[in-house]
């Protein structure tokens, strides 16, 4: 299965088509679409090399940008994915922003205000570790705003992402999905390993209790905000090596399709001889 | 004419109703809707007192905000209007932002990026001296982006302003209209008066040459982006005292309708006796 054709179509297999229905209870977070670990790691390295070269061209071209959004339940592997993807990118021209609980200043503005500020400039890549989607996830699950307020946000987000797209930003959104058992194991590992214990938060357990509420919120998010230009990719993330392969492959294909070009040199520059 | 009823309806007279057609060539920039200068100045002072009180309540309430957008051709009186309106507002809780030629950093982002950053936080008033509307005005007239790019901006702007409205910001937009003769006189006065000469820019004359292109761009802007929640007010601005009255009246009516309330004190606070 791990031939070129299978690899080429991974994007299509994982993309949430607009209008499709999502049932996470029946989604297999172990799935690897026929990939074996050894093949995957070889191909992963290839994708990373492609990403490195394409990002340099994106930066040199300076005309378009790439926004990468990562969402997932606690312990789904957002941080690990970012480390892996960032390995491929030159930090100049790539920013990572983690969106945590909003500050009081941020809460004084609309929920997209702080997000908009961190969107990538032309030539750049921006990676969001959590994002405006928390405003239809944790905000919904905890009832932080009334139902009619979070419900209209799907439209607002689609409108706003459309603006970004039309103005030159390509958007790719990844939802890393691990199942309940996998989350239990990962949280337990954080508790058992003294070096990981700092990652465990007292809120992780009450949040886990809300699994079904989150599941419903995730499904709605995927169904209502996966658009042609800003699609969601639903990544089976129990296996970290497959998760990394999937994200790297989608990004490499995205940048390949964008086909950024080094800008042409000024005419006559090839005749210049630097004087001694 | 300067009775209470006429005053009450000034907002309605000046508001650009969604779907209406605008013909600035036939618009009388001298018009005062029956107001005489002396009456106007008395009422102006009343409006300012209302604005002062209402803004304090808006700030104390801390739940909603007011965005005031000022646009107009060169010398239409944007600066003078802001000085007048700002007189009424407490500078704490009110920001003024002038949007000039974008910086190279700003140009690396979508055109609403720098604007969004300056929108008012809850409890605050923000005044924009020029705004995102320059991206369908000067940008259009000078052909800085292709036609299909500026044409889709009307929709993008409406979507974005709708987001702000839904999230708690009331938007009022003022287009100050002076006619060609009045502009000539004001520009000439800037040249003739040594104390005003700094206001005259070498670009003012070539810009004046483009009067008809700007007129068309203004008309399209007024027709396409005056919405129920974020209406344009078309202000006859040849007479400064009428312009000030009109803007102050619309703002006072807007804040009156918002009816901001001082937040209730904590229960039991009335029984507190401060100890010696």
Structure commentary:
Two copies of one chain form a homodimer. Chain A has one domain: Rossmann fold (3-Layer(aba) Sandwich). With 276 residues, chain A is α/β, with parallel strands linked by helices. The N and C termini of chain A lie far apart (58 Å). In chain A, strands 2-3-1-4-5 form a five-stranded parallel beta sheet, with helices on both faces. Chain A has helices at 4-8, 10-14, 37-61, 78-88, 104-107, 113-117, 138-141, 147-166, 180-192, 204-209, 211-225, 240-258; strands at residues 65-72, 94-98, 125-129, 169-177, 232-236. The longest helix of chain A has 25 residues, at 37-61. Helices cover 48% and strands 12% of the residues of chain A. Chain A has twelve helices and five strands.
Descriptive key words:
homodimer, about 280 residues, alpha/beta, Rossmann fold, five-stranded parallel β-sheet, 5 strands, about 10% strand, globular, disordered N terminus
